[in-house]
Amino acid sequence: MKILAVEDDPRTGEALRQGLTDEGWVAEITTRGDVAIQQIISNTYDAVVMDIMLPGCDGLEAVRQLRARNNSTPVLLLSARGEVDQRISGLNAGADDYLAKPFSMAEVIARLRAITRRAGEAPSQLLRVADLTLDQARRRAHRGERVIDLSPREYRLLEVLMQNEDNVCTRSLLLRLVWDFSFDPGTNLVDVYIRKLRDKVDDRREPPLLHTVRGVGYYIGAKKE
């Protein structure tokens, strides 16, 4: 993918460039909001990572101007301020997601994958991982011929994991996407639901599909070596 990172802090900009490049993506960096608007209009990017506090034009105004020009390039906003009202302002401006600083590069990558996938997906689809299927139109899950009975929260957790097949989802990412938390409340909420989901999805079946990466998070897919 081709990603534009808009960040005026040199250290953060270099961290983004290195992390995106390490992922195998093409990364471009610019430091001004007004310049970023012109670059996005004139070029094709799969997604944009944009800080809110920028010279020339702040990130919120940049997103507003892009959307006013019917430019739908997915935008992930970054800000040192993680308050709920700031996040709401970003989403109302037209951003696709919002991440407070400090952030982990793994979470930036996961969120970029999510917003670019949403930008290109059909209104409903059937997700598949091995013999596990999730019918998003009917909100039904099956492992082979076996129906998996899921609570609404378990369904959403499974959906997020399957949308990121073979990619590790951090606890903070799952809290954000499944529970709509912008912070880690310091509980074992994610771990409890993962155990419930593992009991229902794997249920002593081979091969197991739901895996733990100790100290990082969880993923669904073939076992990583």
H/I helix tally: 8
- Topology order in helix (H) and strand (E) letters: EHEHEHEHEHEEEEHEHHEE
On the 0 to 100 scale, the average pLDDT is 87
CATH fold-level label of the largest domain:
Rossmann fold
CATH level-four homologous superfamily name of the largest domain: Response regulator
> What is the overall shape?
elongated
> How far apart, in Å, are the first and last alpha carbons?
25 Å
Can you name the CATH architecture of the largest domain?
3-Layer(aba) Sandwich
* Rg (CA only): 18 Å
Q: Give the total of beta strands.
A: 12
Structural class determined from secondary elements = alpha/beta
Strand content: 15-25%
Helix content: 40-55%
Query: Quaternary state, please?
Result: single chain
| Low-confidence blocks of residues | none
Overall description:
This protein has 225 residues and is an alpha/beta fold. It folds into two domains: 2-120, Response regulator (Rossmann fold); 126-220, Winged helix-like DNA-binding domain superfamily/Winged helix DNA-binding domain (Arc Repressor Mutant, subunit A). 41% of the residues lie in helices and 22% in strands. Helix 6 crosses helix 8 (189-201).
